[in-house]
User: Fold Butyrate CoA-transferase from Desulfatitalea alkaliphila.
Amino acid sequence: MNHIPFNDLYAQKRISPEAATAMVKPGMEIFLGGAASIAHNIDKYLARRKDELHNVVVRTFLDTAEHEFLKADPDGKVFRWHSGFLLHSVRSHVQRRGSGVYQGVSWHMAPELIRQNYNLDISYVVTAPMDKHGFFNFGLTIAEMQAFCEVSKKIVVVVRKDMPVVCGGQEEAIHISAVDHIVEDDTFATPTLPAIPAKEEDRLIADNVVSAGLIQDGTTLQIGIGGLPNSVLDALVDAGVKHLGIHSEMLTDKMYDLIQAGVVDNSRKTMDRYKSTFSFCLGSRRLYDFLDNNPSFASYPVDYVNSPLVIAQQPRMFSLNSTMQVDLVGQVASEQLGGDRPRHISGTGGQLDFVMGTLFAHDRKGISVLALYSEHKGKSRIVPTLAKGTVITVPRSLVDYVVTEYGLARLRGLSLNERALALIRIAHPRHREALLKQAVDAGFLSYTSTLGAKPPRGVINCRD
Assistant:
């Protein structure tokens, strides 16, 4: 059997982005990627073909940019768009098209559901340049890339020269023999994420978490991105903890800072020991350069990183995620706010995955913290009941800790009466009396209750 040298095969399969986009025909279903790995050059030419096409399904996730095809077809008459996780850049299009564009799933389930339910015509997958063995590394985004490739009739890799090669545990690369076409992207740089400044509320919430001793020597961390998570990670540098590990769906710059400071060394992990594990990365060029071919990292698909059964095996697993609203019985809403036309903000993502994983922790030391600002535009984010149309991301039966800038409460094991009192105590002071009355009216407080000086049961720390 004759084997064509990889470089010759590469030359045979290389086409222009215009030619790659011309492959899309009416009625097709395609995938454009997600996070730092969206095929922007394909998106650009796809938008220009709006008048030639109809009934084209376009799938994405973690939309870090406003897609050109959405701007070209704002009403969705040509492109039927669906996303696995919605970010700020596409929020106006979600409001216009409706929340039906969201593909709702707890993220660890996504690869299996893709393999079971999807049959795509083309997947456009962003990669690093081909290596000497003929492999294209998926770079910063492993997530569900391989699953999309496996259910596609054609695979087009979109090569970016500045995409780092990220060491993987599994499914981190695709071989040229499995690829139909190759496009070189010389137009778009791999996107970076600017530093998000912390607010005073972020620092107060971080202090509530760290001062409570929830993160100890040997803790394994899952923390997202934003001013609040960054404040927690900053506080750990001065907290004196050591031998921390990282097992997180997302890798961020602040995690890199903890590694450089010697706070994270992954030495206490029992799986992927001495490696920081993650499923996708968004951050600075500095972080991307540090990741490039660095064997102290291991990227995995999201059905490994976010599997509650894998999370449960991490020592002292600690998970911190942000939410938008919590009602007085502990139901958590992190993705869609209610109303006659509900507003979809983001997605389930991995929040429920890590809540379940910490709950199932083999060492019985798993901790899940759900954080929120006490107010938004003068209205309490701790509410008596969730409005019609609000989506519950974490049910009350699974919630562990809830934290605001006014305190930290552990809800697990509390009665509904005790939950209401604990949540009212960590609400903004200006809303507490109203929440107390609303709790009585709703029947959550079955007995005479007042907000005394002594913190209610479940409240770990609090301030006024």
Notes: The chain has two domains: 6-184, 200-462.
